Automatic annotation (TrEMBL):
Keywords: Membrane, Transmembrane, Transmembrane helix. It comes from the Bacteria. This is DUF2029 domain-containing protein. Residues 435-455 are annotated as: Disordered. Pfam families: Mannosyl_trans (PF05007). Coiled coil: none annotated. The chain crosses the membrane at residues 115-134, 163-181, 188-213, 233-259, 303-324, 330-349, 361-393, 413-430.
Length: 455
């Protein structure tokens, strides 16, 4: 099913060039918080003064101190976590590939401004390549990635751009129909596993991918010729095995070199509380139901620790099941749509909802023709958090009137939550934006393509 005219070279060039200009704006936005004079540890003195009031805070600049990044210590090898949940030594709170990128960004840096610049130069190519692939996949709709407000706000807020590339890269790789389904799915699984080693969430996408392989792609047309039975179980096992082997291969050196430091990064996230810094429905929805005392804090955190993962995995199961129902209806398992729905479930129910997570969702808003009004509404709600939460923190710190800023933050939290529920179901029914390449099985038409193949 052809859903759109091919994106020409000029369109792709526009998308990539626009992304480059947006990245410059994103860097200068964050760089307002960095620069001389510095203290004895290389921290910009201006950082603590304006990071919230001018919403130029970034985790990149903040984590120059406190994780031995400023001391150029290779991560995880010498580190751990205290009983109170504080990281020690060179351990950082992210999976190992993100930690390695943080260490690379600090190479040659002697202050947080240099670290921010080095990190921006390191991360920018990931955003540009993502823009190119999205342009090939969805045409001009990829401008949402290239010039949208999230890239300005979050490109250099944290280390998200590499993980977004892995998920988009896996989708892109699956369009090369000249490569046998098993082979390209194994390659996609490896990319998703690398994403897991960056920020975890792409690992979940392996489940719908292996179901797509097991069912033989579009209408089962890529099932092995000598297959006995309806499903390619060997192909699905190969996809799962490739992902598992990649995760083990990446993590094992860190496990052997410093198990305590490696394990501490996961323990830190397990111990993290859904407090005012997490922008989650748990803090703004569930926390007010508990009294404001130490005992209630413990009860609240215990409730979140149980409910959050249960609901996340419940959302995953629902997305996979709805995808299976669609497969039974049209003959093709919609693995990309199911992946998008799973991401919505994770973002909604996880106890932490950092503003930069919007970058994770943006490619799916590019690829699927959900209403533009809903997309723009989500960006408005996102800005209410991405800007409003820092102004809210500034107001709290300066003892100002907080009602207005608190209402803006809550508007963002609940606005995003409602739209994530909408996108969860909309992805599973939406038609493609349309472009020249092929991601099979995502159209509302039986055995249709997300986009027509260029191969």
């Amino acid at each position: 099913m052809r859903t759109g005219a091919p994106a020409g070279r000029k369109t792709i060039a526009l998308i990539v060039a626009s992304c480059g200009l947006t990245l410059l704006l994103a860097y200068f936005n964050k760089a307002r918080c960095a620069g001389a004079p510095f203290d004895g540890y290389g921290r910009s003195l201006i950082f603590d003064k304006i990071k919230d009031s001018r919403f130029c805070y970034s985790d990149i600049q903040y984590l120059w101190l406190g994780r031995d990044i400023n001391n150029h210590v290779f991560p995880y090898i010498d580190g751990g976590i205290t009983s109170g949940g504080a990281l020690t030594g060179g351990t950082v709170e992210y999976p190992v590939l993100s930690g390695a990128l943080m260490w690379l960004g600090a190479t040659g840096a002697h202050n947080d401004a240099q670290f921010l610049l080095n990190s921006a130069l390191l991360l920018a190519p990931f955003a540009l390549l993502t823009a190119w692939m999205l342009g090939r996949l969805a045409g001009r709709a990829a401008l949402l990635w290239s010039i949208g407000s999230p890239l300005v706000l979050y490109a250099f807020h944290n280390w998200e751009l590499p993980v977004v590339l892995t998920s988009v890269g896996a989708i892109f790789l699956m369009t090369f129909e000249r490569i046998p389904l098993r082979r390209r799915a194994i390659g996609a699984a490896i990319l998703l596993a690398l994403g897991f080693c960056l920020k975890l969430y792409p690992g979940a996408f392996v489940i719908p991918l292996l179901l797509y392989v097991a069912t033989g792609g579009v209408g089962g047309r890529e099932l092995p010729e000598k297959l006995k039975g309806r499903f390619d179980i060997r192909g699905a096992i190969a996809v799962a095995g490739a992902a598992t082997a990649t995760v083990i291969a990446v993590n094992l050196p860190f496990v052997l070199a410093g198990f305590d430091g490696w394990r501490a990064s996961f323990t830190f996230q397990q111990k993290r509380e859904a407090d005012i810094t997490t922008n989650s429905i748990w803090y703004w929805g569930l926390r007010p139901m508990f009294a404001d005392d130490a005992g209630s804090d413990e009860a609240y955190n215990h409730a979140v620790a149980i409910a959050s993962p249960l609901l996340v995995f419940g959302a995953f199961a629902l997305a996979v099941w709805l995808g299976w129902r669609r497969f039974q209806s049209v003959g093709t398992y919609p693995w990309v749509a199911v992946s998008g729905a799973m991401l919505c479930g994770f973002m909604l129910f996880h106890k932490v909802h950092s503003p930069q997570y919007t970058l994770w969702l943006l490619p799916f808003l590019v690829l699927f023709a959900v209403p533009w009004t809903s997309v723009f509404a989500y960006l408005v709600a996102d800005a209410a958090i991405g800007i409003g939460v820092f102004l809210y923190f500034h107001t709290l710190a300066t003892n100002g009137a907080v009602d207005l800023m608190e209402n803006i933050v809550q508007f963002g939290v609940w606005g995003q939550a409602i739209l994530l529920v909408f996108f969860f179901f909309a992805f599973l029914r939406a038609r493609p934006r349309g472009a020249p390449r092929s991601i099979k099985g995502e159209s509302t038409a039986p055995q249709g393509d997300l986009v027509a193949s260029a191969h």
